[in-house]
Amino acid sequence: MATPYYNAASQPVIVQGQNIITDASEWNKGERQPNRCRDAFWGFLFYVHLGLVGFATVTYAPTMAEDLQDRRLLSTSSRWMQEEGEDVDVDMNSILTILAVCGLASFVISSLAMAFMMYFAQGVIKIALFFNLIVTGGLAFLAFSSGALQLAIPAVIGFIFSLYYTCVVWKRIPFAASNLVTAITAVRANIGLAFFAYTNLFVSFLWSVWWAIAFAATNYVLSDCDAEWNCENEVNGFFIFLFLVSYFWTAQVVKNVVHVTVAGTVGTWWFVPGEARTCCSRGVRDSYVRSITTSFGSICLGVRLAACILV
């Protein structure tokens, strides 16, 4: 793959193999891939699985909600826990306030992190390496101090591997930092990608709520439970496995749609910079469309394998 550079006159100087090309028209950028859906079966299977989760929600959730509502467990200020015979009231306004503060804090921290990585790329990488050493070394010290040899031995092994890894990659930090700065520069030039990143958080939250309702309702009905959660039948382990695969699969698909969108935009910015220089550039739009159409099946396939391994 050719690597483009620019001279003092902002003219492209391209290194391709052993040749130096000064005319951009001579630059062989590779073959354009045909626009076709890849691994379409897995994309179709993903939507089928969402339909099944929706069917379970519509079928079982009303039954569970009706039983629980009789015990006033769905009121805005509900009694959900008892300690020593006393009811503990939970104010939903307080919970919403806490969630709002946490969300705002995460938004600010995420926004500042990008600027910090841009100007202190090498420092970020070094901090990450030292953090691993401090954590594993501190854990080993605490384990030996408390006499927990079963924990100390794995901690020491982890510290040794972290130290070895740090020594091996230390000389490559400048190169990694350059790649990090380049990637962040591309993202800043197409800051519209932030919209997809923050939307991803919202969609993931909605999916978690939906999945929790479907999971609880399905187990509630199929296990023949009452309003006190006393169940006549044992929890079906096969259904639990399927629900866990469903959760990780969908969460990772949402995440990797954003990942593919960013990767495609950075690729466009590198090879065709004229199409990826603004907030909502063509590079951003085309990359997102590809991630949810022609590349969606491949995303579902790759994530499905990872989800099975995680579960």
Number of domains: 2
Biggest pleated sheet:
3 strands, antiparallel
Given the structure, what is the number of helices?
9
The percent range for helix content is 55-70%
What is the alpha-carbon Rg in Å?
A: 26 Å
Query: Average pLDDT value?
Result: 77
Strand content: 5-15%
Distance between the termini: 38 Å
Descriptive notes:
- This protein has 311 residues and is mainly alpha-helical.
- The protein folds into two domains: 38-71 and 191-311, no CATH class; 117-189.
- The chain has helices spanning 40-69, 92-119, 121-146, 149-169, 173-189, 193-222, 237-271, 282-292, 296-310; strands at residues 3-6, 12-16, 19-21, 79-83, 86-89.
- The strands form two sheets. It has a three-stranded antiparallel sheet with strand order 1-2-3, with no helix packed on it. The protein has a two-stranded antiparallel sheet with strand order 4-5.
- Helix 2 (92-119) crosses helix 3 (121-146).
- The longest helix has 35 residues, at 237-271.
- The radius of gyration is 26 Å and the shape is globular.
- The two termini are 38 Å apart.
- Residues 1-22 and 72-90 have low confidence and may be disordered.
